[in-house]
Design a protein that fits this description.
By secondary structure, this protein is mostly helical. The protein has 2 domains: 81 residues, lambda repressor-like DNA-binding domains (434 Repressor (Amino-terminal Domain), Orthogonal Bundle); 119 residues, no CATH class. It has 9 helices and no strands. Helix 2 packs across helix 4, helix 7 packs across helix 8 and helix 7 packs parallel to helix 9. The longest helix is centred in the C-terminal third of the chain and has 21 residues. It is elongated, with a radius of gyration of 22 Å. The two termini are 38 Å apart.
Length: 217
């Protein structure tokens, strides 16, 4: 199972990188030759037959080869090896970014690199750029907000709404939730209160039970 799941992630990352199987194998072999020329231990399992075995889920690469594969493909080693979120190399490991919140319930196949990048771009345009101060709020606040967003999207999916499959729809839904949670809370606080302040965090947390009930209905 581990090899099969790796094969799916590898194939998705390879497709989104725009590389062919042959060019990817040649790039790995070139790195092996460069390491060997420096007197370093050469990479193992970098020929085309090994690559096809990886892609078909019949084998799993050695750690040193896996690290080079992740670097070439521009993805995090943890994601390529085990599916640990997020996929992008420039993001922290946990929690998953808000643009991956889609309201699905139960085990789901996660989107590949291309769709993740598109979702990230959609949230940048339709949510982050319009939701001043969101990224300055405490991590606990942002995490709870994501859970509320997931509940809202799941409720809409249960009603037959197909919108959550569209990242722009999800970003606009997050924007609507931001207006409810962030701006409504700040309206009851002194004007100089920032979203990163303890006062805002305390006021936000005090309203969470009501919001959870709202999103569950």
């Amino acid at each position: 199972m581990r090899a099969k799941e790796f094969g799916r992630r590898h194939a998705a990352a390879l497709k989104d990188s725009g590389r062919s199987k042959l060019s990817f194998a040649k790039e790995l072999q070139a790195r092996r030759d460069a390491m060997k020329a420096k007197g370093e231990p050469p990479l193992r399992k970098v020929d085309r037959s090994a690559l096809y075995a990886f892609l078909q889920g019949r084998d799993f690469p050695p750690t040193d080869t896996l690290a080079e594969m992740a670097e070439i493909l521009g993805v995090r080693l943890g994601w390529l090896a085990e599916g640990e979120e997020p996929i992008q190399r420039d993001l922290p490991e946990c929690p998953p970014p808000i643009w991956l919140v889609d309201g699905n319930r139960g085990p789901q196949r996660l989107p590949g690199p291309g769709k993740r990048a598109a979702a990230r771009d959609a949230f940048q345009v339709h949510f982050f750029s319009r939701s001043k101060g969101f990224e300055e709020s405490k991590a606990t606040v942002r995490l709870i907000f994501q859970e509320l967003l997931e509940k809202r999207l799941a409720r809409r999916r249960d009603r037959g709404d197909r919108g959550p499959s569209d990242p722009v729809y999800r970003a606009n839904t997050a924007r609507s939730l931001y207006l409810k949670c962030f701006l409504d809370v700040s309206a009851d606080l002194p004007a100089e209160t920032t979203f990163s302040s303890p006062a805002f965090t305390a006021a936000f947390l005090s309203k969470v039970p009501v919001w959870v009930q709202d999103e569950g209905n």
